Q: What sequence folds into this?
């Protein structure tokens, strides 16, 4: 399948190529376009359908199946983080670029309204979460946990509204 990479993608962040090569992934058009889209989307996370629509609107022809496959590959390679969102159509996975400073045993608090992400790096907390999972016969999937919450700023604005500005991730 051939995809046209827009000029902005070619001139864009060379770090996409570096990150793909560091993860031992060949920099294909689909991987480059998806990573650049997520990197250029600020701190917001996107689901596969959002990615498909934004690529389609940019004139990039890629199938939804390819997007799902590439997202799985990038997550498995440790380049993306995935969270689940409850929606009217069921659970959907949302993806964002894994920060370079995120270490093993990280936990994110994610505001379900504005999508602000707060990184909590606490080994003791992660050990306790793994122990509780083990007691219940579960195995922690991956080393990053995200917990959905509502930040104080959004709870004052009203829970049903989605803010258009994105706040920066904060390291705790």
A:
């Amino acid at each position: 399948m051939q995809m046209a990479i827009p000029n902005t993608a070619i001139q864009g962040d060379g770090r996409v190529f570096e990150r793909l090569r560091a993860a031992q992934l060949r920099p294909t058009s689909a991987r480059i376009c998806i990573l650049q889209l997520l990197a250029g989307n600020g701190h917001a996370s996107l689901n596969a359908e959002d990615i498909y629509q934004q690529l389609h609107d940019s004139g990039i022809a890629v199938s939804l199946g390819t997007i799902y496959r590439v997202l799985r590959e990038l997550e498995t390679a440790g380049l993306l983080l995935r969270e689940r969102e409850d929606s009217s159509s069921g659970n959907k996975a949302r993806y964002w670029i894994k920060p370079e400073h995120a270490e093993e045993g990280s936990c994110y608090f994610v505001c379900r309204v504005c999508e602000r992400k707060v990184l909590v790096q606490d080994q003791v907390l992660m050990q306790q979460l793994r122990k509780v999972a083990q007691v219940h016969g579960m195995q922690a999937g991956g080393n990053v946990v995200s917990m959905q919450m509502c930040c104080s700023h959004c709870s004052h604005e009203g829970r049903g509204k989605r803010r258009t500005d994105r706040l920066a991730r904060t390291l705790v």
About this structure: The longest helix spans residues 64-76.
